[in-house]
């Protein structure tokens, strides 16, 4: 009973998968109809399976991945059909078909999944009865299935913006949690809690990886889809945000490691805590700007107010180098956040006080 899925999670998964289900069903019907009624193939199983395999429920729905999957499946079918046509069916023919398919697939693609997909289809062709309709009927069906899958990716897209936006908000929420936890600890001082926050920051890597994957997929689909191309500038802005927030998380880990060393004395550091509280507010606004782009100027304004304070001798006058090193570590973090909000590297750098003065 403990491992049963929560109803809410199941419903959310179903709702998010609904566009993919519609897309797959339509693509399968089209592939089947072309092979069965237009070309007269009596049992176009391959057209159907290639379509489903190429589309799937993968988070990464880039056209390139669809093409790679379709090519892998079709390659396995074609090579196996050629061997069956030349040597018939049997145990050694099965071994030969699989060996040739895996060898060719590994030569053509570095992706292990490409070879496995090709190998599975090769085995099926080698062991199943020869299909009526003439030589290479299954190969033709495979080409049809892959082509329809690619066309449906462009013409019946799953609106991948939704997945990218969801992943963006999850990551930004995790970022806010890490910074807020760090700020709370610095207000009161702690000898051990900073290490816990550092571990919390390290656990965010899968979230930024998911955001990157879904966003790359969304951009690739928008480039070929006439219905989503108008959203390409919006997705490219989010791409800039994603790249810089990835760097901002890496720099947040650097800041947290510095603080984990300093906090062994258990002394509060309210000046740094106040800066981090400003970062929390700014990133919260940055997350809202994904839906409301008009908030971006306010995000930049808040971050610039933080940036101008990042001078060691002004923020922490009279403190030793060990203390002021945290300020030096925060400068690239705030620069990353400024660039995530839309500033160029030169503009973000110009917002920082000159530490040589």
From TrEMBL:
Keywords: Membrane, Transmembrane, Transmembrane helix. Residues 37-152 form the Integral membrane bound transporter domain. It is found in: Membrane. GO terms for cellular component: membrane. This is Uncharacterized membrane protein YgaE, UPF0421/DUF939 family. The keyword RNA-binding does not apply. The chain crosses the membrane at residues 20-39, 66-85, 115-133. It comes from Agreia bicolorata. The keyword Chaperone does not apply. It comes from the Bacteria. The lineage of its organism: Bacteria, Bacillati, Actinomycetota, Actinomycetes, Micrococcales. It is a multi-pass membrane protein.
């Amino acid at each position: 009973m403990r491992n049963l899925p929560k109803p809410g999670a199941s419903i959310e998964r179903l709702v998010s998968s609904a566009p993919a289900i519609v897309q797959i069903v339509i693509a399968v019907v089209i592939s089947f109809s072309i092979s069965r009624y237009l070309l007269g193939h009596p049992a176009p199983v391959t057209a159907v399976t290639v379509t489903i395999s190429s589309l799937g429920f993968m988070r990464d729905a880039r056209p390139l991945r669809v093409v790679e999957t379709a090519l892998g499946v079709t390659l396995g079918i074609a090579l196996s059909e050629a061997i069956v046509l030349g040597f018939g069916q049997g145990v050694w023919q099965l071994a030969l078909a699989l060996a040739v398919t895996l060898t060719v697939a590994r030569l053509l693609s570095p992706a292990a999944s490409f070879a496995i997909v090709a190998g599975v289809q090769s085995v099926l062709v080698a062991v199943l009865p020869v299909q009526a309709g003439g030589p290479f009927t299954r190969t033709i069906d495979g080409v049809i299935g892959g082509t329809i899958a690619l066309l449906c990716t462009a013409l019946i897209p799953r609106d991948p913006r939704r997945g990218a936006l969801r992943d963006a908000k999850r990551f930004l929420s995790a970022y806010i949690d890490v910074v807020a936890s760090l700020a709370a600890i610095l207000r009161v001082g702690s000898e051990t809690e900073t290490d816990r926050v550092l571990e919390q920051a390290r656990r965010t890597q899968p979230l930024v990886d998911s955001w990157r994957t879904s966003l790359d997929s969304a951009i690739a689909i928008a480039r070929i889809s006439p219905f989503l191309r108008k959203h390409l500038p919006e997705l490219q802005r989010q791409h800039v945000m994603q790249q810089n927030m990835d760097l901002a998380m890496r720099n947040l880990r650097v800041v947290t490691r510095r603080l984990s060393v300093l906090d062994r004395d258990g002394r509060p550091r309210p000046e740094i805590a106040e800066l981090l509280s400003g970062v929390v507010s700014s990133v919260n606004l940055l997350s809202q700007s994904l839906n409301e782009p008009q908030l971006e100027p306010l995000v930049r304004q808040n971050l610039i107010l933080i940036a101008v304070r990042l001078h060691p001798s002004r923020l922490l006058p009279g403190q030793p180098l060990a203390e002021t090193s945290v300020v030096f570590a925060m400068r690239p973090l705030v620069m990353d956040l400024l660039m995530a909000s839309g500033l160029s590297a030169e503009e973000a750098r110009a917002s920082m006080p000159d530490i040589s003065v």
